[in-house]
Design a protein that fits this description.
Order of helices and strands: HHEEHEHEHEEHHEHEHEH
Mean pLDDT: 76
Helix content: 25-40%
C-alpha cells in the first residue's frame, strides 16, 4: 500500500521536511522574527553607527515546546471559568482570571512563559535583513576608483619566513625526492632543507572605491525623542547597506537649528536646540565638507537629512541653491520626514522643496516615516532609486 501526503496552500513550508529538519527550520524562523521585532533596541545604544561591527546584542526568543497531554495536579481541584457551574439564558460570561495565588503578593503555580536570550553579531543580523530585502547593488560613480596596495600570493620559493611555509607543497617535494633517491639510497632522509617551499607575497596596486556619508539632523525644539529614534533607525540601516558596497566609508554628522554644527556620533543623537529651523545652514556645511575634503572624483558621496518637515519660509531659496549644488556632486540625497503616529494631510515646507528639486532630475528622494516599519520602505526606495539613477 502506498502512503499519500496531502499538501495544501496552508501547509507551512517546513512541514515538507523530516521532524528534525522541521524543528530546526521552525526555530530559525522564530529567531528571525524575534530579531526583527527587537530591531528598535538594536539601534538604541550609543555609537551604534561608528561602533565595531563585531559587537554582539542579545535578543529574547520564545522557547518552543511540542504539544503534549498532562494530568491535572489534583483530581479535586475545581476551576471557575466559562463552561462550569449553573447558568441560564442571558447570563454574561467573562474570561476566567489567572490564578496568581491565594493572597496578594503570593506566587502562583501556573506555567509561565520561558524566553531564551540569544547573542548575535550585529553584522550577522544585517546580513539576514539584506538577504530578505533583496536590495539591488548601489552603483558607484564612474572614475571614482582610487588605488590601494595589497599583498597577493604569487609562486613559491625555497627560502622565506616560517609563517609562510607551504606544508602541502613541502611534502610533495619530499615525496618526489625520496622516489628518485630510493633507487640509489637504501634509507633516504624524510625531509631536507631542499624540500621546503614558502609562499611568496608580492605587492600590487588594486582599485578601491571610497564613500563619504553625511548625516544631517534637525535638532530644533519641534523635534521629539520619537522622531529622533525614527531618524536614527533609518540612518543606521542605510549606512549598513552602503558599507556592503564600498571598501572604505567615512561618516560625518551635522546638526542644525538656525545654525549648523558638526558633532561626533554620540553627541549627534543627543544634542537638542531651541529656536527656529534653517535647513540651508546644514546643506551649506555639507557642501563645504564635500568641496574641501572629499573630491567627488575620488569619493562616492551621500547626504541623508532627517527633519519633521518644518523650515523657515525665507530659507527656501538658500536651501534650494545648496541642495541643487550638492545634487551635482553627490551620488544621492535622501530626505526622511519623521512624523510619528499618522502622516500629515498636507505637504510640509521641506517635502515641497525636495519634490521641486527632484523634478529637475537631481538624484534626490524623500520618504515619510510614521512608524518603525516605514524605515524598510524608505531604505528599499533609496536603493532602487539610486540604482536607476
Amino acid at each position: 500500500m502506498t502512503d499519500h501526503i496531502t499538501i495544501s496552500a496552508e501547509t507551512p513550508w517546513y512541514d515538507l521536511f523530516s521532524r528534525g529538519s522541521r524543528d530546526w527550520l521552525r526555530h530559525n524562523e522564530k529567531v528571525r522574527e524575534a530579531v526583527q521585532q527587537n530591531l528598535p533596541n538594536l539601534v538604541a545604544g550609543p555609537d551604534v553607527m561608528t561602533g565595531s561591527q563585531d559587537r554582539t546584542v542579545q535578543v529574547p526568543v520564545h522557547l518552543l515546546e511540542h504539544a503534549r497531554f498532562r494530568l491535572a495536579d489534583s483530581a479535586s481541584q475545581t476551576y471557575s471559568s466559562a463552561g462550569q457551574g449553573q447558568g441560564k439564558p442571558g447570563d454574561v460570561l467573562r474570561q476566567a482570571q489567572p490564578d496568581y495565588g491565594e493572597e496578594e503578593g503570593e506566587g502562583g503555580n501556573n506555567d509561565g512563559e520561558v524566553k531564551l536570550l540569544l547573542e548575535f553579531k550585529v553584522d550577522d543580523i544585517i546580513d539576514w535583513l539584506w538577504e530578505e530585502l533583496q536590495l539591488p547593488d548601489l552603483q558607484p560613480k564612474r572614475n571614482t576608483a582610487v588605488t590601494d596596495d595589497e599583498y597577493v600570493r604569487e609562486g613559491w620559493d625555497k627560502h622565506g619566513a616560517r609563517a609562510r611555509l607551504d606544508r602541502r607543497r613541502t611534502v610533495k617535494e619530499a615525496v618526489k625526492r625520496r622516489v628518485t633517491q630510493e633507487k640509489t639510497t637504501e634509507h633516504p632522509v624524510p625531509f631536507t632543507n631542499e624540500d621546503l617551499r614558502f609562499k611568496q607575497l608580492v605587492q600590487r596596486r588594486k582599485p578601491a572605491t571610497n564613500a563619504v556619508v553625511i548625516f544631517a539632523l534637525d535638532v530644533s525644539a519641534s523635534m521629539t525623542d520619537a522622531e529622533r529614534k525614527l531618524a536614527k533607525s533609518f540612518f543606521f540601516f542605510v549606512l549598513q547597506g552602503i558599507r556592503r558596497r564600498y571598501g572604505k566609508v567615512t561618516t560625518r554628522f551635522i546638526a542644525h537649528t538656525t545654525q549648523a554644527w558638526e558633532f561626533s556620533e554620540s553627541e549627534f543623537f543627543n544634542v537638542s536646540g531651541t529656536g527656529g529651523t534653517g535647513a540651508s545652514t546644514a546643506f551649506k556645511l555639507a557642501l563645504e565638507l564635500i568641496e574641501t575634503e572629499y573630491d567627488p572624483s575620488q569619493y562616492n558621496g551621500y547626504l541623508f537629512y532627517a527633519s519633521d518637515g518644518e523650515n523657515f519660509t525665507e530659507d527656501r531659496a538658500a536651501a534650494t541653491e545648496y541642495l541643487t549644488r550638492l545634487g551635482k556632486l553627490l551620488n544621492y540625497i535622501g530626505y526622511v520626514e519623521t512624523v510619528p503616529g499618522s502622516p500629515r494631510t498636507s505637504e510640509t515646507e521641506m517635502k515641497m522643496l525636495c519634490s521641486d528639486i527632484e523634478r529637475t532630475g537631481a538624484p534626490i528622494g524623500s520618504s515619510i516615516l510614521t512608524r518603525h516599519e516605514d524605515v524598510w520602505k524608505a531604505i528599499r526606495k533609496f536603493f532602487v532609486q539610486q540604482e536607476s539613477d
